[in-house]
Write a structure and sequence with these properties.
Nuclear Transport Factor 2, Chain: A, 37% helix, single chain, alpha+beta, 4 helices
């Protein structure tokens, strides 16, 4: 029993040390890309949105497969509420980079005001990013709704 507790403590301590490591500039750039992409959605700004997404982005949302045109249509064009406001809270769990590819997992909460109603939505999401012309761009986004 003592060995098991020591082993579990060692794993927990290692995880705590890893969680406390500061991000390097590349990891910060990856996270900034994700944040700015969601800011563009909040601002209903398709031009800025395209800056942070690969042209061939694939999004897996609500059991469906979307491309960039689908995202722009559903989140921007069809969103005509005059009182629309979206505030994103993104808490990163992990950000990893391997050469020209990166992936990040995070909890995403959106507080959305629309047509006089406030709705809070939560997701666990993973993105895969690629480096294009010295900029990170989101290539894949997989989203799992959290109840």
């Amino acid at each position: 029993m003592g060995k098991l507790l020591s082993f579990l403590f060692a794993i927990l301590f290692s995880a705590m040390l890893m969680a406390q490591q500061p991000l390097n500039s590349s990891q910060q750039a990856v996270q900034e890309t994700v944040i700015k992409m969601f800011d563009a959605l909040s601002n209903r700004d398709s031009v800025s949105l395209k800056l942070y997404c690969a042209d061939d982005i694939t999004l897996y949302e609500y059991g469906q497969t979307w491309n960039l045109d689908t995202l722009i249509n559903k989140a921007i064009r069809l969103n005509t509420a005059t009182d629309f406001k979206r505030i994103n809270t993104i808490n990163f769990i992990n950000t990893t980079i391997n050469k020209q590819t990166a992936w990040a997992t995070y909890n995403n909460q959106a507080d959305i005001t629309m047509n006089g109603k406030l709705i809070t939505k939560k997701w666990l999401e993973t993105v895969v990013l690629v480096k294009e012309e010295k900029r990170w761009k989101i290539k894949v986004l997989h989203s799992t709704p959290i109840k």
